[in-house]
Structures are given as structure tokens and as C-alpha cells.
Design goal:
mainly alpha
Length: 274
């Protein structure tokens, strides 16, 4: 009721002609953890003042319409509009608390990037509801319904789950690409080292390898103990043994890297594993 043309005729507050503006959605301006914490603090501190302002405006409209002050106040307290306003503010605070919790998913560290996808998602949904309706009261009800339903689902809709899964899939692909790139670089460097002349006319590098903790057969250090006789690929040719050793090292690095990545994903909700 507050802010409509009828209110102006009754002596209420003037119309807010910018209620469709995207700048009205405070989530869109949050770009860092500090801003998120500050906004949450402002919402908590101003909660009571907002409720009292809404109550006063509803009561004022009724009194200007000719109702007794006591009756107007009593009706305002029990009105559906007041209930929607108070509950919407409560759910909106919950949304900010949820976003802050997402940033602190890692118990020992905080990363705003963890919460950023959800903030952007909810901001887009709220912006859509603010701009798609022709009347302000319809917009208020739509925003209330969205926040209420999201709160009931712990702010995790199917659409948001899908977005998070896509982000984590991209993270996995990026990690795999990095492992493959590392493997190729390592292979090129080792191949170059093995084929470099050691100054004695010997290109296999074995003369220098005598003083290194490296197997002469597979040209790897730390893969197995002992020398050539204990090599895992001693029955293969030198080239085959080196190739097998490189594959083994790369697979081991990929396995360790994959385990660390999936531990990270599990710590952020296990979306990829679900």
C-alpha cells in the first residue's frame, strides 16, 4: 500500500518511481568479503527500524482514510502487508548469512570466490522479479515468495546446483589440462637431458648418471630402490623403459592431484560427487 498513488491522495508517502531499478537490489553491489560482512551488519542493525517504518506508513495510510488511530495501528500490526515486509527482511538476512557461510566453507580459511556464484545467482533472480511486474505490490509479493521458498530449501535450488556443478566441472578440466601440460613439459625436458652429449661422446648420459641417485635403465629417481637390476622395466629396452617410467610418473602425479582436487570439491559441498 505504501508508495502507491492512492497513498498520495490520502496524504501518504509519494510514489517511488525507481522501484524497478536494479540498484535497489543490494546484493549486486557486494564484490568482496568485507562488503558482505558490512552489509549483513547493516541489515541486522536496521531490522527493527525498517519494521517500525513500515508499520507507521501502513497505519498512516489508514488514518488518512478516516480510521481511528488505535484501529489503524491494530490493523497495521496484523496486516498481510506488514507480515510480508517483516518476513522478507528476515529471509533476506538469512540469504546474506548463507552467503557468508559459503565463503567460510573451509574451516581454516575464507575465500569470497566460494560465495560469489551464489550471490550472482540470487541477485539475478531478484532483479528479474523486480523488473518483470507492472505493479509494485506484485513485485513485493514475488520477491517475498522467492526468498521464502529459497529459505525453505536452504538457498540451494536445482538451477543453482546445476550452475555449481558446471563451475566444478570447469575446475576439474582445468586441473587435468595443467597435469597434462606438466607431463608434456617434463617429458620434453627429460628427453632433452638424456640426449645431450656429456662431453665424452656419449649421448645417453650414463657416465654422468653414475653419480646421481637415478636408475640407468628408466632414468628416474625415487621410482624404485637399487640400480638397473631392480628396475621395474629391466626386461624392456632402454627407450621402452624410459617411456614406461614417464607414463608411471605422470599417472602418479595425476592421481595425487586428482585426490587433492576432489577433497577440495567435497569440502565445498560434494557437488561433483553427487
Amino acid at each position: 500500500m505504501a508508495g502507491t498513488q492512492t497513498d498520495m491522495e490520502l496524504g501518504g508517502d509519494p510514489m517511488d518511481l525507481n522501484w524497478k531499478s536494479g540498484s535497489k537490489i543490494s546484493l549486486t553491489s557486494i564484490k568482496s568479503l568485507a562488503q558482505l560482512q558490512e552489509r549483513l551488519s547493516e541489515l541486522r542493525q536496521g531490522k527493527r527500524a525498517v519494521e517500525q517504518t513500515l508499520l507507521g506508513r501502513i497505519s498512516s495510510v489508514l488514518q488518512h482514510a478516516g480510521y481511528d488511530a488505535n484501529i489503524a495501528n491494530e490493523w497495521a500490526v496484523g496486516s498481510i502487508l506488514y507480515r510480508i515486509g517483516c518476513d522478507s527482511q528476515y529471509f533476506y538476512i538469512q540469504l546474506h548469512e548463507h552467503n557468508l557461510g559459503q565463503a567460510w566453507e573451509e574451516e581454516t580459511s575464507c575465500d569470497f570466490d566460494n560465495a560469489k556464484p551464489e550471490i550472482e545467482h540470487h541477485a539475478a533472480e531478484l532483479r528479474c522479479r523486480r523488473t518483470m511486474y507492472s505493479s509494485r505490490i506484485m513485485m513485493v509479493c514475488a520477491v517475498y515468495a522467492y526468498l521464502r521458498d529459497q529459505s525453505a530449501g536452504n538457498f540451494r535450488s536445482a538451477k543453482l546446483q546445476e550452475k555449481r556443478q558446471k563451475i566444478q566441472m570447469l575446475a576439474v578440466k582445468k586441473h587435468v589440462a595443467q597435469v597434462e601440460s606438466t607431463y608434456q613439459k617434463m617429458k620434453e625436458l627429460q628427453t632433452k637431458a638424456y640426449t645431450t652429449d656429456n662431453g665424452n661422446g656419449n649421448n645417453n648420459g650414463r657416465r654422468n648418471d653414475r653419480n646421481k641417485p637415478m636408475c640407468w635403465k628408466c632414468h628416474q629417481a625415487g621410482v624404485h630402490t637399487g640400480g638397473k637390476d631392480n628396475c621395474l622395466w629391466k626386461n624392456l629396452s632402454d627407450d621402452e623403459a624410459k617411456a614406461k617410467a614417464l607414463e608411471w610418473v605422470a599417472a602418479k602425479q595425476a592421481q595425487i592431484g586428482g585426490q587433492n582436487l576432489f577433497k577440495l570439491i567435497e569440502g565445498r559441498g560434494g557437488m561433483m560427487l553427487g
